[in-house]
């Protein structure tokens, strides 16, 4: 079975953390008298296995054909973790009365016998010993992770848990699954909704809709050790679309020269044909996946490869990698010259990013490598490529990866990055670089540095950023001497308000993290009067024991600020209900205000707690808050499992100022820019728009009571200035997003996959008439960072006269 390194870690630990066997049996929908899961096998390609692939077999016990259009087979690990997701294999066609239907899943490197020709093909690497398979009406991934929750999901037609699976029907999961044994239903296809009773261990016996059994259809047999090339070349395997025309088929004696070897992680090697065809769409390189076995070849070997062609999808929304699996390799000769690399530069890469499929899959679209950047990269998947003197646009990560651009004039930022300007203007020149030699990883580099000289290797694809260069030869880093910015000190008459996401800070963190973050506040931000913090956790972080207070965390942080030369800050927050605000489980993440009591007063109004909504109160002297600190509409569904905004009333030079600290829902679950679905669906946006509307409504209530109220809305909104989220937040022109007051090439506070972009914002109401705004770049562009966000600051003149022309002020960039 095919398991990526991250998933293998999940599955390997699955058996040890199963739920108690005393859990009550789930009451699933009435037992099926028609379509059922008749056999499940997760040992395909494992050591000792005969079959090369995992499979799920369906059967129809009814008297009429069972239509599978729009249905799916879905898989969940036996002991699902917080990060586990149901993996989907889509179905089509139907199951005849009394017939079978075969779904092929991932291939491994063992086994000698292929499945009969499958009726549907998925890419799921199932565990041989423990897991859950569901037949589902629909193709949307299930979300249930317990037997009881799954029993309540009416989309589940049938379900089979095996081994030690937490999710199963009845008294327990089916027993006996292994590398050599499936779990199968009796010939009667009886379904009593009890997996332990209905499914028993047996030798795998897949049958497809045509009635073929294993060894038929795509059986590669034993290709032996051919000394002459077969009829299939690499470009035949790659084809003119993203999916191989030979997917699932056996190939024999495919010739090529070994261009690179990956000896760890997803092991294997790349081969490239030295006699390319004339079609630029059909790639000449391909990855040969050897699984747990170390590749027994060297760069420069001329080889003949036999095996099965497979499309490996790193996740359900990514594009696939075309591979030859379960390989048998003959080395014909060694020490051969490698094909010349394809040069990737501004001339080679098209300016358009990817074709549209109206939100659907681009898998079947014919490649247009001269028109679209992602089509060019796909046509070069597995091929040798070369880049030279590329500017770093995303600093070296903890995983020894660095982002560069081969199009240096594409949306450059002032400090050397590449700006993410809009949903329709993608940066086509971004490529991730990593080293194939663990002993010589990618060197440390910051944004604006240059990967000088030549870097070459093979072009690959993964779920973390898409196309990447697996380097066999690395250039050297030229230091651009990027410096952390220091903003100016506020003047006596200016109220300085900042926002800073401190990335899951809690009292158990290392002192070094506190010290670095504190220096950011005291030195780089020049000790603002108010700091709105995001991602302060409870005092014991991710420990689930009911703790919700953050006093120890905030004392350590404010002590560190004093040690760094800053003022002694006070703080205010509203503790969340345990486990209700999302974020890291057990962390009880929240927004917090720090303020310097020697410069600004906090107006305390009692009664604010986790469930009480704050309201605007109109008085003869203007507007006040019903509670301070308080939370905006905490009972609204917009904030389910999410951080609630914190509102505080401050006074500066006798004038009231209302500050709203936010941390909107994350972008988790959105389809990737580089994925198979174009244009990508931003599913997480729906919740952020709801949250923005709640904050907008509250700000409007303040302004309805006092149109000149000074309101500062700020924080990590997890969305861009051009997003519907910010549009909903500013509706009615009640707030001005200050990021748009900066020069275009400075409108960013965060770097993701080589794109400089803005997730953090400060917005002000029309009553804020004179301001000076700055994004202070100290984290996002650096390999060494205390947080992945840059802080921002606005300095407000609260006594600025009203000349009747709305917002004044300007954006400003910090000096070194």
Q: How would you sum up this structure, described in words?
A:
There is one protein chain. The protein is mainly beta and 816 residues long. Helix content is 10%, strand content 31%. The chain has a 7-stranded mixed beta sheet, covered by helices on one side. Strands 29, 32, 33, 34, 35, 36 and 39 form a 7-stranded mixed beta sheet that branches. A 6-stranded mixed beta sheet has the order 8-7-2-1-11-12.
- Which stretches are low in confidence, meaning pLDDT under 50 for 5 or more residues running? 1-27, 216-223
Quantity of strands, as a count: 42
The order of strands across the largest sheet is: 27-28-26-25-41-40-42
Tell me, rounded to a whole number, the average pLDDT: 91
| Quaternary state of the chains | single chain
Using the CA coordinates, give the radius of gyration: 29 Å
Distance between the terminal alpha carbons, to the nearest Å? 54 Å
Shape: globular
Helix amount, in percent?
A: 10-25%
Q: Helix- and strand-based class?
A: mainly beta
Characterize the largest beta sheet: strand count, sense, and whether it forms a barrel. Answer: 7 strands, mixed
Q: Which strand-content bin applies to the residues?
A: 25-35%
């Amino acid at each position: 079975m095919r398991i990526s390194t991250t998933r293998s870690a999940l599955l390997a630990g699955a058996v040890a953390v199963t739920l108690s066997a005393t859990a009550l049996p789930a009451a699933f929908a009435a037992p099926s008298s028609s379509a059922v899961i008749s056999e499940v096998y997760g040992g395909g390609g494992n050591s000792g296995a005969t079959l090369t692939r995992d499979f799920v077999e369906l059967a129809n016990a009814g008297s009429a054909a069972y239509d599978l259009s729009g249905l799916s087979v879905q898989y969940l690990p036996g002991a699902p973790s917080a990060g586990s997701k149901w993996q989907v294999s889509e179905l089509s066609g139907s199951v005849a009365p009394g017939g079978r239907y075969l779904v092929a899943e991932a291939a491994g490197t063992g086994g000698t016998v292929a499945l009969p020709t499958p009726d549907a093909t998925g890419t799921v690497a199932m565990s041989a010993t423990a897991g859950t398979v569901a037949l589902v009406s629909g193709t949307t991934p299930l979300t249930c992770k317990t037997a009881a929750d799954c029993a309540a999901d009416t989309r589940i037609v049938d379900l089979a848990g095996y081994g030690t699976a937490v999710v199963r029907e009845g008294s327990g999961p089916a027993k006996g699954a292994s590398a050599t044994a499936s779990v199968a239903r009796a010939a009667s296809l009886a379904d009593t909704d009890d997996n332990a009773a209905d499914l028993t261990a047996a030798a795998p016996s897949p049958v497809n809709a045509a009635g073929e059994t294993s060894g038929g259809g795509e059986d590669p047999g034993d290709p032996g050790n051919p000394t002459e090339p077969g009829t299939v070349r690499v470009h035949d395997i790659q084809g003119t679309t993203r999916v191989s025309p030979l997917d699932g088929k056996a190939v024999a004696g495919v010739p090529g020269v070994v261009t690179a070897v990956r000896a760890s992680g997803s092991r294997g090697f790349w081969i490239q044909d030295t006699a390319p065809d004339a079609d630029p769409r059909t790639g000449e390189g391909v990855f040969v996946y050897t699984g747990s076995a170390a590749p027994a070849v060297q760069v420069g070997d001329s080889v003949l490869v036999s095996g099965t062609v497979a499309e490996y999808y790193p996740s359900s929304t990514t594009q696939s990698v075309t591979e030859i699996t379960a390989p048998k390799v003959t080395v014909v000769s060694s020490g051969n010259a490698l094909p010349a690399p394809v040069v990737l530069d501004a001339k080679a890469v098209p300016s358009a990013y990817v074709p549209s499929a109206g939100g659907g899959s681009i898998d079947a679209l014919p490649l247009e490598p001269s028109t679209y950047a992602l089509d060019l990269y796909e046509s070069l998947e597995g091929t040798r490529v070369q880049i030279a003197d590329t500017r770093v646009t995303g600093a070296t990560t903890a995983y020894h990866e660095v982002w560069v651009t081969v199009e240096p004039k594409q949306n450059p930022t002032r400090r050397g990055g590449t700006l993410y300007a809009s949903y329709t203007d993608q940066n086509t020149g971004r490529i991730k670089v990593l080293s194939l030699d663990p002993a010589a990883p990618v060197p440390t580099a910051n944004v604006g540095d240059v990967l000088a000289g030549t870097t070459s290797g093979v072009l690959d694809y993964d779920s973390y950023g898409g196309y990447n260069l697996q380097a066999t030869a690395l250039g050297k880093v030229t230091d651009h001497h990027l410096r952390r910015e220091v903003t100016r000190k506020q003047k006596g008459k200016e109220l300085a308000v900042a926002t800073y996401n401190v990335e899951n800070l809690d009292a158990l963190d290392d002192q070094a993290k506190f010290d670095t973050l504190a220096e950011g506040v005291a030195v780089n931000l020049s000790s603002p009067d108010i700091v709105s913090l995001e991602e302060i956790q409870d005092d014991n972080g991710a420990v689930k024991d009911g703790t919700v207070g953050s006093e120890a965390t905030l004392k350590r942080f404010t002590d560190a600020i004093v040690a760094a030369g800053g003022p002694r800050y006070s703080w205010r927050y509203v503790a969340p209900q345990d486990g209700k605000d999302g974020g890291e489980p057990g962390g009880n993440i929240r927004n917090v205000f720090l303020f310097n009591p020697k410069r600004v007063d906090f107006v305390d109004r009692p009664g604010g707690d986790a469930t009480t909504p704050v309201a605007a109160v109109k008085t003869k002297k203007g507007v006040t808050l019903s509670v301070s600190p308080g939370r905006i509409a905490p009972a609204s569904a917009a904030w389910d499992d999410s951080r609630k905004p914190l509102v505080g009333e401050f006074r500066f030079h006798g004038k009231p100022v209302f500050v709203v600290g936010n941390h909107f829902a994350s972008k988790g679950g959105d389809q990737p820019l580089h994925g198979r679905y174009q244009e990508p669906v931003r599913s997480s946006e729906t919740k952020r728009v709801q949250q923005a509307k709640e904050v907008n409504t509250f700000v409007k209530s303040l302004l309805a009571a006092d149109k000149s109220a000074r309101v500062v809305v700020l924080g990590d909104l997890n969305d861009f200035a051009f997003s519907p989220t910010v549009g909903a937040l500013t509706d009615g022109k009640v707030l001005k997003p200050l990021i748009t007051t900066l020069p275009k090439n400075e409108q960013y506070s965060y770097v993701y996959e080589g794109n400089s972009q803005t997730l953090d914002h400060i917005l002000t109401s029309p009553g804020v008439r004179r301001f000076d705004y700055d994004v202070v770049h100290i984290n996002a562009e650096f390999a060494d960072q205390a947080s992945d966000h840059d802080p921002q600051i606005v300095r407000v003149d609260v006594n600025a006269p009203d000349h009747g022309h709305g917002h004044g002020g300007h954006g400003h960039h910090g000096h070194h």
